């Protein structure tokens, strides 16, 4: 107020800046709401909470994993190991890093229906599986492992490919031998 008791007008710049900030904040809030809403919907629709468990049924949330689940049920490890025992790291941080990495790429493939056919394990996950074999079977294989620092170890699944997943031909006898 000035000396006469009248209100003074604020400069237009100040009110334009507030309008601009308000519009940008509103647009950001709307965009954030859409992203969070879609994320929550996708998490719920994809049964995302089940991925926090050790239940092998989780793997068949995605229909392309049904064959892998069926072959696991017929395998020698069915009664002693679940998917996470062989396909995730046994240290807590590595477990969640692998779970997040695989979860992201699995959900991406699921969302865009972009699966390789046939499914193939990535090199990083092959190393995780090798470490899982050694985690449980180190006492049996320690004499077969290389001694030198740079000696290479043959992958356990090179010879024991049907331990975790029975040969697909046993479960799906109509498959051609080369389609595995």
From TrEMBL:
Assigned keywords, A-Z: Cell membrane, Electron transport, Heme, Iron, Membrane, Metal-binding, Transmembrane, Transmembrane helix, Transport
SUPFAM superfamilies linked to this entry: Multiheme cytochromes
GO molecular function terms attached to this record: electron transfer activity; metal ion binding
Subcellular location, principal: membrane
GO biological process: anaerobic respiration; electron transport chain
Record family assignment: Belongs to the NapC/NirT/NrfH family.
The protein's name in its UniProt record: Cytochrome c nitrite reductase small subunit
Organism: Blastopirellula marina
Gene this protein is translated from: nrfH
């Amino acid at each position: 107020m000035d000396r006469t008791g009248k209100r003074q007008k604020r400069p237009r710049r100040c009110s334009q800046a507030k309008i601009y900030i308000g519009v940008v904040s509103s647009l950001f809030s709307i965009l954030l709401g859409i992203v969070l809403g879609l994320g929550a919907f996708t998490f719920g629709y994809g049964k995302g909470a089940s991925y926090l468990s050790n239940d092998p049924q989780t793997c068949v949330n995605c229909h392309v994993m049904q064959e892998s689940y069926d072959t696991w049920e017929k395998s020698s490890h069915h009664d002693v190991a679940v998917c996470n025992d062989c396909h995730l790291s046994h240290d807590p941080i590595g477990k969640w890093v692998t779970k997040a990495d695989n979860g992201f790429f699995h959900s991406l493939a699921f969302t865009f229906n972009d699966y390789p056919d046939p499914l193939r394990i990535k090199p990083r996950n092959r190393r995780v599986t090798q470490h899982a074999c050694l985690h449980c079977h180190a006492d049996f294989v320690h004499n077969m492992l290389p001694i030198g620092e740079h000696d290479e170890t043959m992958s356990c699944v090179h010879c024991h490919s049907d331990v975790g997943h029975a040969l697909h031909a046993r479960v799906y006898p109509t498959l051609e031998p080369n389609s595995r």
